[in-house]
Design goal:
The complex is a heterodimer of chains A (about 625) and B (about 70). Chain A is built from twelve helices and 52 strands. Chain A is an alpha/beta fold and about 625 residues long. Chain A folds into three domains: about 140 residues, no CATH class; about 120 residues; about 230 residues, no CATH class. The chains are: A alpha/beta (about 625), B mainly alpha (about 70). Chains A and B meet through helix 9 and helix 10 of A and helix 1 and helix 2 of B.
C-alpha cells in the first residue's frame, strides 16, 4: 500500500518540502509511518522541517500506532550525534523515539511543555523523557497526563558568550557615539543659542565667512584676516586673536556684534584709499574689543589734493556702537603731504556712539591731522580716557594742522572725556601754517561737557599761527539753535608754544583758544563757557605780533551781553596767564585792538591760589 | 521555529543591524568630514544625529538581547 512512498516522505522531510509531503499524506495511513525507531514527526523535529511541523504537527501527535518501515543509517547517525549519552536508551532496541522524546533530546523544552498536553503518549514515553532529563541534566521531571514541567535548562554557554560579547560591543559603541555626539554638540552649530566653539584659524575663517555665531575657546594666531560683511556675533570669551602681518582691512562691514575679544596686531598697511584696520563701516556693535596694535598705516595714493582720506584703527565710519574698548597703539600714521589725510583711532567719522573707551601708547603722525578717538564726531563720545601720546610732524604750509585727543571736529557731544596724554606738533615749513590744538578737541561746533585735560600740549615750529585750548582750539558756530558750548570743563595741563617768527599770532586759552572767523565779532556769535575752571600753565617762547593768553579763552568775540554765555567760571592767575580772556575790536580797517578782562562778576573770576578754586563747587 | 531559536536569531539579527547602522553612521560622519574639510566639526548637525541615532539603536539592542537571554533561560 505504501510501497516506495517512504523514500518520498523522507526526502520531503529533509528538504522541508511541504507540497511533496502534502502529496504523500493524501493516504491517511501514511501519517502512521515510522522509519524503524523514528516516526515522521520525530524526523521532522530532527531535521527541523518547519513547514511540515507547522501544518501536520497536531495530526502527527495523535498517532497511536505506527507502520514500521526500514530505518536508514543516515537518520540514525544524525540522531546519534544529537542524542549523545541518551543513545543508550535506544541503541539495539526495538522501540520508538517518540516526538516528545526527540524534542527533549534536541533540548526544545518549551516546545515539549507546549505540545505535551495534546500528544498521545504512553508511560514508556514519560519514563524515557525522565530518563533523558536525568541523563542530560541529572534533574527530576514532574509529569502528569496533561502537564509536564521540565527542569530549567542552563543556557548554552557559547550563546551566553556571544550575547555578552555583543552587548559589550554595543555598549562600547553606544558610549563612543554618545561621547562623540556630546562632544560635537558642545562645539555648537553656529546658531545664536549654540555658537560654534572655535579653536583654530580655519574654523574661525569658515565660521565668520558663513556669518555664524562664534565663541572663541582659545587664543588664535593668524597671518592676515580679510572678510566682507559679518552679521553674526563673535564672543571672544576674553581670548586673543593674534595677527602677525595685517596688510588690509579685516571686515568691510560689521552689522552684528564682536565682543570680549582682544586683537594683537602687527600692522603693515599701505593704502591708496580711506582705510581702517578693523572695519570699514560699522553698523553693529564692538563691545569689549581691545586692540593692541604695532606698526605702520600709510597712505600711498595720489588722489586729487581736495580729497580727504580717512584712516582709522577701529572703524572708518561708525554708525553703530563702540563701547568698553581699549586701544593700545604704537603706530606710525603716514600721509603724503598733498591730500588731507586724517586719522581717528576709534573712528574716522563717528556718527553714533563711542562709549567707555580708553587709549594707551604712542601715535606718531606724519603729514596727518588726527585725534586718538575720532576725527569728525557727529555722534556721542562719552566716558573716554586718553593716555596716548599723540604727535604730528609736518612740512606742510598754508594749511590747517590739527591734533587733539578726542576729536578734531566735534559736531556732536563729548562728555566725561579725560586726556592724560601728551599732544605735540612740530611744523617745519617756513612758509607758515595754522595750528589748531586742543586737549580734548580742535574745532568744537556743539558740546563738550564735563571733560578735563591733564596732558601737556606742545607746539613746536617757527612759522605758524596757533590757536590752542586746554579743552578745544576753537569754538565754531554751525548749528542754528546751538552755540558751541563748554560746560563743566577743566584745564590742568601745560601748554608750551615755541616760535621765533615775529608776525606769528598765538591765541591760547585754558578752555578754548579762540574762534576762526571774524564773523564772530561782527555778528556777535558767542561761545558758551559755563562752570569751567582752568589752572593750566603756559610756556610761550619767541616774539609775536599778538600773544593772547587767557585763563579761559585766548580770544572771545564780544563783551556786551556776554553774561548770557559766560557764567560761573574760574581761572588761576599766573605770571604767564594774567587775564581771563581777550576781546578783539576792529579799530579801523583791518586794525585790531585787543582788550584784556580779568574778572567780571558772575561770568569769570581770577584766583591767586589753586586752593581757592578747589573750594568752588565747580571744581572736580 | 522554536522559541529558543527565535531568541537566538533575534540576537544575531540585532548584531547584524547594529553593524549596518554603525557602518552607515560612520559613513555619514566620514562623508560630512571629507566634504566640509578641516572645518567639518563646525557643520556638525549630521554627525550629531548619526551619533545619537547609533547610540540609541545600540542601547535598544542591548535591552533586546537581555530580554532574549532571559526568555531563553526557561
Amino acid at each position: 500500500m505504501l510501497q516506495g512512498i517512504d523514500k518520498e516522505i523522507f526526502k520531503a522531510i529533509k528538504a522541508d518540502d511541504i507540497k511533496a509531503f502534502r502529496a504523500c499524506m493524501q493516504d491517511a495511513q501514511a501519517l502512521t509511518l515510522s522509519y524503524g525507531r523514528f516516526p515522521i514527526l520525530s524526523l521532522c523535529y530532527l531535521y527541523n522541517s518547519r513547514h511540515i511541523i507547522k501544518e501536520f504537527e497536531d495530526k502527527l501527535l495523535q498517532i497511536r500506532s505506527y507502520t514500521i518501515y526500514p530505518e536508514n543509517s543516515e537518520m540514525y547517525i544524525l540522531f546519534k550525534s544529537k542524542a549523545k549519552r541518551c543513545i543508550r536508551l535506544y541503541a539495539g532496541k526495538d522501540c520508538i523515539v517518540h516526538p516528545l522524546e526527540m524534542l527533549c533530546i534536541l533540548n526544545k523544552k518549551t516546545r515539549v511543555e507546549a505540545v505535551y498536553p495534546k500528544a498521545i503518549k504512553t508511560n514508556s514515553t514519560i519514563e524515557n523523557i525522565k530518563m533523558i532529563e536525568s541523563i542530560k541534566y541529572s534533574k527530576e521531571v514532574e509529569a502528569t497526563e496533561t502537564k509536564i514541567v521540565l527542569p530549567k535548562q542552563p543556557i548554552d554557554k557559547n550563546f551566553i558568550k556571544t550575547s555578552l560579547a555583543a552587548m559589550a560591543i554595543l555598549l562600547v559603541v553606544a558610549i563612543v557615539f554618545s561621547v562623540l555626539g556630546g562632544f560635537v554638540y558642545s562645539l555648537g552649530n553656529g546658531s545664536e543659542d549654540r555658537p560654534y566653539k572655535v579653536v583654530g584659524e580655519s574654523q574661525l575663517i569658515k565660521a565668520i565667512e558663513s556669518n555664524s555665531y562664534v565663541i572663541l575657546d582659545r587664543d588664535i594666531e593668524v597671518d592676515n584676516l580679510d572678510f566682507d560683511s559679518y552679521s553674526g556675533i563673535i564672543d571672544g570669551n576674553g581670548h586673543t586673536i593674534t595677527i602677525n602681518n595685517q596688510t588690509g582691512t579685516i571686515f568691510k562691514e560689521i552689522s552684528g556684534t564682536i565682543k570680549n575679544v582682544n586683537f594683537s596686531i602687527i600692522l603693515n598697511y599701505e593704502t591708496k584709499t580711506s582705510a581702517s584696520v578693523l572695519v570699514t563701516n560699522l553698523t553693529g556693535t564692538l563691545d569689549g574689543v581691545n586692540v593692541d596694535i604695532l606698526g605702520n598705516l600709510k597712505y600711498t595714493g595720489n588722489a586729487a589734493s581736495s580729497v580727504t582720506l580717512n584712516l582709522s584703527v577701529y572703524s572708518n565710519e561708525n554708525n553703530g556702537t563702540i563701547k568698553n574698548c581699549v586701544l593700545n597703539s604704537n603706530l606710525n600714521i603716514i600721509g603724503n603731504g598733498v591730500n588731507d589725510v586724517v586719522f581717528g583711532g576709534f573712528s574716522a567719522q563717528n556718527k553714533n556712539a563711542i562709549l567707555n573707551v580708553e587709549a594707551l601708547g604712542n601715535i606718531e603722525m606724519e603729514e596727518v591731522n588726527g585725534a586718538v578717538v575720532s576725527y569728525v564726531n557727529t555722534g556721542t563720545i562719552e566716558n573716554a580716557q586718553n593716555k596716548t601720546n599723540i604727535s604730528q610732524t609736518t612740512n606742510a604750509f598754508n594749511c590747517d594742522l590739527m591734533v587733539a585727543s578726542m576729536a578734531i571736529k566735534n559736531f556732536g557731544n563729548i562728555k566725561n572725556a579725560i586726556n592724560e596724554g601728551k599732544i605735540s606738533l612740530k611744523a617745519t615749513n617756513e612758509k607758515g601754517a595754522y595750528v589748531f590744538m586742543g586737549g580734548i578737541a580742535c574745532d568744537n561746533y556743539l558740546t563738550i561737557e564735563h571733560s578735563k585735560n591733564l596732558g601737556e600740549i606742545i607746539c613746536d615750529g617757527e612759522y605758524f599761527h596757533a590757536k590752542i585750548g586746554g579743552i578745544a582750539s576753537t569754538g565754531e558756530y554751525y548749528f542754528v539753535d546751538n552755540y558751541p558750548t563748554f560746560d563743566s570743563c577743566a584745564s590742568l595741563g601745560k601748554v608750551s608754544v615755541i616760535t621765533i617768527k615775529t608776525i606769528s599770532r598765538s591765541y591760547v586759552g585754558g578752555i578754548v583758544g579762540g574762534f576762526r572767523e571774524y564773523d564772530y565779532i561782527y555778528n556777535r556769535l558767542p561761545i558758551v563757557i559755563k562752570d569751567c575752571y582752568s589752572v593750566y600753565e603756559v610756556d610761550l617762547q619767541g616774539t609775536y605780533e599778538a600773544k593772547l593768553l587767557g585763563g579761559l579763552a585766548g580770544l572771545w568775540p564780544f563783551m556786551n551781553n556776554a553774561g548770557t554765555y559766560l557764567s560761573n567760571n574760574a581761572y588761576l592767575v599766573k605770571e604767564s596767564v594774567p587775564h581771563a580772556l581777550y576781546i578783539c575790536y576792529e579799530s579801523s580797517f583791518f586794525e585790531y585792538v585787543y582788550d584784556a578782562y580779568d574778572s567780571v562778576e558772575g561770568m569769570f573770576s581770577g584766583y591767586n591760589t589753586e586752593d581757592e578754586i578747589k573750594a568752588l563747587e565747580i571744581y572736580w | 521555529m522554536f522559541r529558543e531559536d527565535k531568541h537566538k536569531v533575534a540576537v544575531y539579527m540585532s548584531l547584524l543591524i547594529m553593524a549596518i547602522v554603525d557602518a552607515i553612521a560612520l559613513l555619514v560622519a566620514l562623508v560630512l568630514g571629507i566634504m566640509l574639510g578641516v572645518g567639518a566639526l563646525l557643520q556638525s548637525q549630521g554627525i550629531i544625529i548619526a551619533a545619537i541615532f547609533v547610540a540609541a539603536i545600540n542601547v535598544l539592542e542591548i535591552i533586546f538581547i537581555l530580554i532574549c537571554l532571559l526568555k531563553t533561560k526557561d
